[in-house]
Amino acid sequence: MAISVLSVASEAYPLVKTGGLGDVVGALPAALAPYGVEVTTFLPGYPRVLAALEADAAHGKRARTRAWANAGAQGHKGDERGPGLLRAREHDGSGEVSHGLGAPLHRWPDLLGAPAQLLEGEIAGHRLLVLDAPGYFAREGGPYGDPAGRDWDDNWRRFAAFARAAADVAGGAVGGERYDVLHAHDWQSGLAPAYLRFAPPAPEAPRTVMTIHNIAFQGRYDASIFASLALPALAFAVDGVEYYGGVGYLKAGLESADAITTVSPTYAREILSPDFGMGLEGLIRTRQRRVSGIVNGIDTAVWSPSADPSLPARYDAATLDRRAANKRAVEKAFALDVGDGPIFCVVSRLTWQKGMDVLADAIPALVERGARLALLGSGDAWLEQAFRDAAERFPGQVGVRLGYDEALSHLLQAGSDAILIPSRFEPCGLTQLYGLAYGCVPVVARTGGLADTVIHANAAALAAGVATGIQFDTVTYESLVGAIALATDLFADAERWEQIQRAGMAADFSWATSGRRYASLYRELLAA
Ligand code: ADP
């Protein structure tokens, strides 16, 4: 019999995405279906998500693929930016739920302080449940903050309500539904396993999995909110939701879940140490036997150079020469001089985690080697300014687009020669996987998922024809410039460069292997 999983997350591509979390949650249903796992995705009812449901209902179908793709600074990650991308649904301010859809599956008259109801739809052909709660989610801005990028003051309540509702749905309190497994992603869903443990809606609670997509975002709040969470007093404990005297949402999930996963084996090891665990390393060490690292896959329906609708020229490993047309398009889009030298690209949040400060320092050295840079990103204001300055200082050699642009991110992978990813830590990282699939050679820091997915072009790997990219050890100016130098040297030998590109394109980062691993984890939990 199929295993039923409620996948609980604050983002899912194509409806809402600020980073890799959205990509992964969006890909899971299709990734797990071949292994007898039926995934239902549970999302907050942001205006764009409700609009998609309404449009589907109006069209007499539920599947919908319009993207609400946008990024921002931090938040999960970020607060969604870009005026006009998201408009709050009109509602009368009474807090009453209202929508243009059929009858809801369930109503909560008072879900931690506001009314809410459960709606049903589809996402990419799989079941979607949406928590429609205008008091929490009918707002202009991003998933986590206002249009100016400030986190909402009541994020603690918004995502507590979301987690409470998810626990009710998975635990059997809603319309006779019950799920075998509740799979929570990141801090926004972290309280869901805690609700099932401390306040289950029915005696037999589902098994729970907590996945860490990025341990830097923890959902940490003052102890005073505890009284409003509707948890029993005993939950405020060291082995409960209490975290350094306050309340920790991710911590609560890690403490309560039956299994913990993170998104690469190396990151699973790294977070055992204080340098990477960010305060949670002790807890993770005590629960180490329940921790596993399962590397993310890529959604090949969205990321395949031979079928990508956003490219001027589609290609595969046998027709790499067609990339030239995409390279010309990158030059045009980023106002770069036309040339034969390598183009390095960046598609990233502009933050310290991503090593963007070190990259900004390395730009003169990159340009000096005859290379060009095309950067697409948004994030910290001072980094945005540093890249603006670099574009001004090196016209024709450095092109910068500040903002979020899904189509342009595809073009960069398809037309640049290499992608720079100097992350100080990187739980999995998806842009290097897209780079591999697109023949855009990843130049990466040796950490987390970057260490696990790129084969460094040392002499032995080159001789064996297995090298897929370049790795460097510490995120310093010297090591990054060294890696850029190695890449430009390798690029000068066209045959060798193509060998690296083809080896990357031949690597399998589809969801096949990882989908199977999640499925067997669920099976083990259910058998236990
Ligand atoms: P993280 O989730 O830490 O930001 P990942 O590499 O896991 O990093 O995922 C980032 C995702 O967001 C990728 O799909 C990447 O292409 C996309 N992305 C990041 N910044 C931008 C941008 N400015 N425009 C378009 N896509 C972006």
Textual characterization of the structure:
It contains 19 helices and 18 strands. The protein is an alpha/beta fold. It folds into two domains: 3-297 and 512-527, Glycogen Phosphorylase B (Rossmann fold), CATH 3.40.50.2000; 320-508, Glycogen Phosphorylase B (Rossmann fold), CATH 3.40.50.2000. It has a nine-stranded mixed beta sheet, with helices on both faces. Strands 15-14-13-16-17-18 form a six-stranded parallel beta sheet, with helices on both faces. Strands 8-10-9 form a three-stranded antiparallel beta sheet. β13, α11 (356-368) and β14 (372-379) form a beta-alpha-beta unit. The longest helix has 17 residues, at 155-171. It is globular and about 65 Å long.
CATH architecture of the largest domain: 3-Layer(aba) Sandwich
In total, how many domains does the architecture comprise? Answer: 2
Per CATH, the class of the largest domain reads Alpha Beta
Q: In DSSP terms, counting alpha (H) and pi (I) runs of 4 or more, how many helices?
A: 19
Main sheet makeup: 9 strands, mixed
For this structure, what is the CATH homologous superfamily of the largest domain?
Glycogen Phosphorylase B
**N/C terminus separation:** 17 Å
Quaternary status: single chain
